[in-house]
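can u pls check wat happens w/ pyridoxal-5'-phosphate
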Amino acid sequence: MAGQSSMFLHGPYEPLCIERAEGPWLFTSDGRRILDAGGGAVVVNVGQGREELAQLAADQVARLNYIVPVWTSAARNRLVERLARWTPPGLNRFFFTSGGSEAVEAALKFALMYHKVKGQPQRHKIISRWFSYHGNTLAALSVGGNLGRRADYEHVLLRWPHIGPPFCYRCPWDRTYPGCSLDCATTLEDTIIQHGPESIAAFIAEPMMGATGGAVPPVREYWPRIAEICRRYGILLIVDEVMTGFGRTGERFAVDHWKITPDLLIGGKGLTGGYVPMGMVAVAEGLVQECEKAGADFMFYTYSAHPLACAMADKVLEIMEREHLVEYVAQMGTQLGAQLKEQLSGHPMVGDIRGTGFFWGVEIVRDKAARTPYPPQLRVTNRIVGAALKNGLFVYPTSGMAGAAGGDGVMITPPFVIGPAEIDYIVGSLRAALDDVLAAL
Ligand SMILES: Cc1ncc(COP(=O)(O)O)c(C=O)c1O
């Protein structure tokens, strides 16, 4: 296909040229219609093709298309005012980027800088979790815990500690909740003590395991316990809500499920719903004030707080408020989850279905009782995504949750504008795709 051969790398699925999109639907140049139940890369929330956003973009570009990020604009002023109402209490200082990886980099650097200005430069390690993804740059990969994505760079990544995730289906400690003693949380304290609390700057994690794990909410005691441990040892808590933020899980942010207030919260993807690229870090006011008092400087990116991105993000959030989309996701997510479980859990390939809101994962196994994954070389995730596309459905791939043994799955993370008819379509088409793949294996 023209254009594909000029790309640096190719995707694993059939090369599609998408000509236009409307709501949750994609239309290809060869006349096919695909329901985007991945929301792209878990990005699209208010749906595609909104005239109001197209008009705003045209107006904004005509009025002001670039300023140095140290200045502000009406669009940015509106956005930060709105964001301060969205983020957990006290997180009202913002830094904007072009995407999630840059925002993770900024958050990690801020944590290191904060301890330095507080006279503790020896706090230079960041603890993170295995089976996680925080982005594609070297520091983001260093805190990331996807073995496959780290593999080619392992020799240059920063040697920071990783701990096991709260993942009951494949518990790293082989325990069963609630009979366990929450090893997934206490391991954080053990690791802090092992390395010496005075050497640890921050702990970073996704509030629910995302694309390396397949939409896994933790048990409800996990985050309160983690927050308490971080506080006790003076370690900054950074939550990466690039995937889970802005309504995706049925709350504005996933941390709202447990009423946790982190020190830093990272966002991206749903912030602009895919209309333009943007990421952000929200930081507790007090931490920024400490750095300002010390005269510390934090370098911007050229496209930080780009006026168009600010205007679009503000409007996307306004639409979500006006149309009560977060509440809608909470309500319809229950139906989506129930139908997935009803119609797919009996399928011979389906090991586990978990999630909340419009953030669901279906883990695929070869042996349901033993929870054995398929050998990675069979590329079962790619086969399922490919088969679903043939049935007019896109689901987001997720893999690696079984560690060295591989692990396959798909995520159902649709735009927030689907209704009961689209839910029927998603579940029916996914079931047909699983049948097709099973028959061919
Ligand atoms: C939790 C999380 N953090 C960070 C990133 C990186 O964001 P981006 O791809 O916009 O750089 C992703 C991307 O999938 C993500 O899921």
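The pocket of pyridoxal-5'-phosphate is lined by residues 41, 99-101, 104, 133-136, 206, 210-211, 240, 242-243, 268 (CB under 6 Å).
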